[in-house]
Amino acid sequence: MTVETADKDERLKESSFVSQLLKRPELGAIAGVVAVTVFFLFTANPVMFSLSGVLNFLTPAAQLGILALGAALLMVGGEFDLSVGSMVAFTGLVFGVALTVFQLPLLLAIAMTFAVAGLFGLVNAEIVLRTGLPSFIVTLAFLFILRGLSLVGLKWATNGSTQLRGIRESVENDWLAPVFSGRAFTGLFEWMAGNGWIEAFSNGKPKVDGIPVEILWFVGLTLILTWVLLRTPAGNWIFAAGGDANSAKNSGVPVRRVKMALFVLTACCAALVAILTVLDAGSTDARRGFQKEFEAIIAAVIGGCLLTGGYGSAIGAFFGSIIFGMVLIGLTYTQIDQDWYQVFLGGMLLIAVLFNNIIRKRVTGER
Amino acid sequence: MSDAIVRMENIEKHFGNIVALSGVSFDVRPGECHCLLGDNGAGKSTFIKTMSGVHKPTKGRMIVSGKEVVFDSPREAMDAGIATVYQDLAMIPLMSVTRNFWMGREPTKGWGPFKQLDMKKAEQVTMSEMKRMGINLREADQAVGTLSGGERQTVAISRAVYFGAKVLILDEPTSALGVRQTASVLATIDRVRKDGIAVVFITHNVRHAMAVGDRFTVLNRGKTYGTSTADKITASELQDLMAGGQEMVELEGSLGGTV
């Protein structure tokens, strides 16, 4: 018995605060945000870190981030969805057609968009779960199918054009529109400008008149999904299903249902992005969401998700997406050529996977 | 013996025209470790799968706590208190010990949409159950991957016990382990048995069986050679029974009795 107590003390010393921190999957992404911030503090025009500058890079970060959150949870659950980018285009088309061709009220158009997305999510899930084929290849097929369908559908809806317009006009005065478009807290911003707390024009109107709603959706979803992942039985099932589906099943985890729900969630995240961006632009086209599936997966990987599943976090995908937004917009505030964007992102991805590999070995005690 | 918690009588199992089990009788009592020995292909796996509800016997009766039962699924066997720890352990290396311990049976608090994991309870129970089994975890969120093979086996056993196993079937728990790990698993078996749980210990290692077994049943080619108690049989007799007698004696002679 004395041996055991001695053993315990000796082990306790090993676990320092640093090694505790190193275990968190999102650590890499937070370190990345810090590194990118420092980089732009030195190279970029300080306007980038003013209120309007921050909102400027958070808006594309949010549009990508909502996709990345879905992708991250699905990856933790052990599957991939390469069709999310095409899903944005396709659900954008469904949404646009519902509003302009069918003249549906916004609420019904949104419901229809989510229903279609959920349906395709289920189709993806059914094929993957029934055949046991890798989701990578099944959803790659849907990457092309949905992109193609978006083109075909657009031409049908517009009599030959690849852009569907008139969306903003059809939702004017709709009570639900402020939830999905425009800016929130405009009153608060005016009040803050009135008190001189934020920058204002000479007529007293604030320079930034509110927070773009997609940022609020992004933050809200991050909080909810982080809670689900870490603090609910469903979250435990997601980790278990991705870590080892067979062991999870033998322990009573409803693996099938978990994976189906995750495919549907990912598709619905794409639908939400479609709704937000289509309302923002007032039109939709066939290139919407182009290659977003890769960016979403990269953001999830930077956020600590392992490609093999069973490990990762939603908060990590949140920071991973912010890195994307900062680099994309930040470069315009510097002397650096925009073309470096992709080089930068490729580099980040490479560093992230190398880093994740080390972390995984630390966590599992592999050598 | 009337106090057996599980009694299997003349169990036969056929797969098409293959007879995997031809009339096996076996029983296990609370607080004993009954070792089921047999070489590869002897029918051990088929037999424990019948006991744990994976297979239905072709013929024969199964009596649990004095009542005849027919299990349609492993879940029903689990509900009757028969838990099986298979070799893969149903553990996920990347997840913490606590999350593995509660996997599929997570404790919750709160209500409605705000129902969430009761992490405090989960961690406390896990830590104390592990301590009871002689494993001092560094922290409750330590990943299972950092544990040794023996420790993982012990986590799986204590999980089964905590969730109400009255009969614990262990499928070759020591087969992939080193000497020290084996000793720790055997110690766990001993501890569980003293808690009044019936242990069915499947192995083909006679020395491991002799170390903790109260009774021994040898399976060979789908049949039993009867059951013996620890004081009535020696290791070499068990070894011979497993190998089917004759040939093993010859083989052992040529190897100088080292098998």
From TrEMBL, chain A:
Q: What is its main location?
A: membrane
What the entry lists under CDD domains is as follows: TM_PBP1_transp_AraH_like
Membrane topology of this protein: Multi-pass membrane protein
Keyword Membrane in annotation: yes
GO terms for CC?
Answer: plasma membrane
| Function (record text) | Part of the binding-protein-dependent transport system for D-xylose. Probably responsible for the translocation of the substrate across the membrane.
Q: What is this protein called?
A: Xylose transport system permease protein XylH
**Classification lineage:** Bacteria, Pseudomonadati, Pseudomonadota, Alphaproteobacteria, Hyphomicrobiales
Automatic annotation (TrEMBL), chain B:
One Pfam family recorded for the sequence: ABC_tran
UniProt keywords, alphabetically:
ATP-binding, Nucleotide-binding
Q: What is this protein called?
A: Sugar ABC transporter ATP-binding protein
Q: Where is the ABC transporter domain?
A: 6-246
SMART domains associated with the record: AAA
Q: Which organism is it from?
A: Fulvimarina endophytica
Q: Which InterPro entries is this protein grouped with?
A: AAA+_ATPase, ABC_carbohydrate_import_ATPase, ABC_transporter-like_ATP-bd, P-loop_NTPase
**GO MF annotations in UniProt:** ATP binding; ATP hydrolysis activity
Q: Which domain of life is it from?
A: Bacteria
Q: Where is the signal peptide?
A: none
